[in-house]
Design a protein that fits this description.
Elements lengths: L1 H17 L15 E4 L5 E3 H8 L4 H9 L1 H20 L8 H23 L5 H10 L5 E11 L6 H16 L4 H8 L3 H4 L4 E6 L6 H7 L11 E3 L2 E12 L2 H27 L7 H4 L17
Amino acid sequence: MKLCLAVVLCLGSVWGQEQAAKRPQMPDIPDTEVVAVFDDGAKFTMGEFRNMLTVLPPEMQKRAVEDRPNFVKQWALMRKLAKLAETDKLEQQSPTKEMLEYNRTMVLMNAALTNALNHVNVESYEIVNYYNAHREEYRQIHLRAIYISFAKKLTEEQAREKGEKLLAEIRGGADFIKLVKENSDDETSRAKDGDFLTLREGDNIPDAMRSAVYQLKQGEVSDLVRQPNGFYIFRADEVGVRPLSEVRDEIFTKIKEARYREWLDKTNHDATVDFTNPAFSGTAPAASPAGTKSGSGN
């Protein structure tokens, strides 16, 4: 492991010195074409080179493409050192033996996880059924707002009194847009007649705002919503449901991930272990104090 690390560090240093100013394109060579032959006679094809690129970190991929001969030379050195280790049966000695077993298990585990996720199938009708059964999850509310600040001119109590007065006027039939233009301290939304945001399920907004506006029906106005520097009055201009075409990919991912988690939970449940030594698992009974005997009697 230390040898491989040293080679990789050396490789990074060499590549860093010889990095081309502009990344060259991969040559148009068939995967079956042999591009190199190692000193033991093993052939290295273009397809093997391309496949190896997929497991390298992004920066190393870039460097391997920029200087392909140097990468293959370094790979030849790594192969030779690995074969020397095998000749000396180092793979059978600790800690190399355990490192190989651990890394092999990790690679295979990740391959199994990826394979399981890739094989989760979701039919189109399942997406439609989920959408119809969970339409509330895709509810959206377009809001307009009046903002009364107590950060500068007004105290908090004065801002609250102003907000309550405006709220009474709105519920009495006053023109909301007109009151926005005359009273809102939010310059950005005021310039757009109070246009504030479209709230959707899962959006990251303050809880006080969510609870105040999410249940509004179209045309309804919220109570005052206090925020750190002011009060808001919200009006639900439009209340509806996001179209299926917009959320299809979200639903596909949600169903796929749920099935994957079910499979993983079952696999985890089936991976039982029988601990045969109580001392190892920490369930051994506490030792009796010195000078005492277990059991009863005088």
